[in-house]
Amino acid sequence: MDSILVRGGGELNGVIPIAGAKNACLTLMPATLLTEEPLTLTNAPRLSDIRTMTQLLGSLGAEVASLQSGQVLAMSSHNIHNHTADYDIVRKMRASILVLGPMLARDGHAIVSLPGGCAIGARPVDLHLQALEALGAELELREGYVHAKAIGGRLRGGVIDFPIVSVGATENALLASTLAKGTTVIKNAAREPEIVDLAQCLRRMGAQIEGEGTSTITIQGVDRLGGATHPVVTDRIELGTYMLAPAICGGEVECLGGRIELVGAFCEKLDAAGVSVEQTERGIKVKRKNGRVNAVDVTTEPFPGFPTDLQAQMMALLCTANGTSVLEEKIFENRFMHAPELIRMGAKIEVHGGHATVTGVEKLKGARVMATDLRASVSLILAAMAAEGETVVSRVYHLDRGYERVEEKLGACGAHIERIAT
Ligand code: UD1
Known about the structure:
By secondary structure, the chain is of the alpha/beta class. The protein has helices at 22-28, 48-60, 87-90, 100-107, 126-134, 167-177, 193-204, 236-249, 264-273, 311-318, 338-344, 374-386, 397-402, 406-411; strands at 2-7, 12-17, 39-42, 63-67, 72-76, 84-85, 109-113, 137-142, 145-150, 159-161, 183-187, 208-210, 216-220, 228-231, 251-256, 275-279, 283-288, 298-299, 324-328, 348-352, 355-359, 368-370, 390-394, 416-421. It has a 4-stranded mixed β-sheet. A 4-stranded mixed β-sheet has the order 2-15-17-16. The chain is elongated and about 65 Å long. It starts with a strand and ends with a strand. The mean pLDDT is 96. The chain binds uridine-diphosphate-N-acetylglucosamine (UD1). Residues 23, 26, 94-95, 121, 123-128, 164, 166-169, 308-309, 331-332 line the site of uridine-diphosphate-N-acetylglucosamine.
């Protein structure tokens, strides 16, 4: 299993290209199931989660060709011969549940394994299922699988009123309702840029959608959707992660393709911490305003609030800030597993339930640490780049799910980082 070795110290200077968003691509890919015509995604990220979705779609009968070294995904679902998403694939990646809505909308039936537990909390799929029931699906849970049927063979429009905001459930509802008969209204919908991107792609395919990016989305179902070519939106989490690199290490980095509106709440916190963020023509330029950054309090919230997917990386910054910061995690329980690893590097962190109190120290120290999930793993790399001495981060397969060529991107800015086989 690979590890990442980081020799800390030294500023970062240069440019980092930001890839297409993993989370957008994972919801755009199942949209191929809604049409017999080709759907092509450009600006796709090259990540193991994308390969898992490719494998899942392939198991259903879809063809997914990875072109231009993986940056273009040419998909065709003219021959869907299997309507069962198997546990062996679904358990690897929770986003697999996103094939349920499209399969049901297209052919009126689908069987999808329940994703099971996850390292960052219970993460049920009840909201996905409730949304599909509101569209006239009959669901049965048997032996760990959801067996879904559209009553009368086709989904029908309905009102979906989510009790809490869920990105994935909004996506499943949106995908399914495009082919449902009649009008669907999704209330308390997620407003994330990935939802807006999905709506734009579906519209290119012929769907009738209004209100994406607000909390009420209205969909007028159509009889069929056609093919399209769609560029995947920039990855705001990869963007925020690399924006933190010069904030933690010093120096100046320009993140190519970055747009402030994708990371507004995050930029406000960086500004308060004493980090300058400047929109340029080709991206976002980041550097510290003065010497050491200041402590700031952070609460994670659905978009447009501070993203939970940047909480671990922000904690890495606050470990060396001047003063005490409180981070509150409101989206997922148990999402502070990076804290004990950062403590191994000399950080002062106390976790009580959904709060973490971080008292900044002058310097972190290199150590052997373990990646516990995707965002935790990159937070350890950020911390390691600013620490004294060497850090070895093990279990980096988590990292490969969400960050492409991380050593190359950071190495090009002067970081001493390499992958080692251990
Ligand atoms: C997506 C992102 C993930 C991000 C998260 C929150 C993808 C592939 N993943 O995950 O990176 O951290 O949004 O921004 O896009 N919930 C339920 N029942 C459900 C669904 C969710 O109770 O049926 C709860 C979850 O446990 C969580 C909250 O709702 O507490 C929000 O989760 P959700 O927005 O659904 O996250 P995901 O779509 O799984």
